[in-house]
Structures are given as C-alpha cells and as structure tokens.
Input
Amino acid sequence: MLRSLDILLLIFLLVTAIGVVRTKDLLGASIIFSAYSLIMAIVWQQLSAPDLALTEAAVGAGVTTVLFLIAIGRTVRREDE
Output
C-alpha cells in the first residue's frame, strides 16, 4: 500500500525526469539530474535497500554531477545565428 510520502516521491521523480528532458540548458539539466538522483536515493532507502541508496547518492548525485559540470565547463558555447 502506497503512503503519501511514496506518492510524493514518485511525483517528484516524474517532474525531475521530465524537467531534465525538457531543459535546453545543459547546466540546468545536470542540476535537475542531480536532484533526480537524490530523490532516487531516498526511494531506495524507503524500499529498504540502503546499499543502493548510498551508491545512488554517491555515484548518481555526486560523481556523475561533478563529471557533467567539468564536461560542460570544458566545452565552448556557440550562439546560433
């Protein structure tokens, strides 16, 4: 049986997933993706999987976000004519 917290987390997951896909700005998309990973870590914790929750928080929200930000920082932004 779903609790209100579970439903709220699922709604946040859907909103952040749609936000990542719809966002045109790469920096904004990577920040929203980081929020998605943090929410997913909470979901894993609620499902009694603390090992997956820690891995998702460390790799998904931590390392991946840092790598995305480094990659975005090293690219050159071109304006469309």
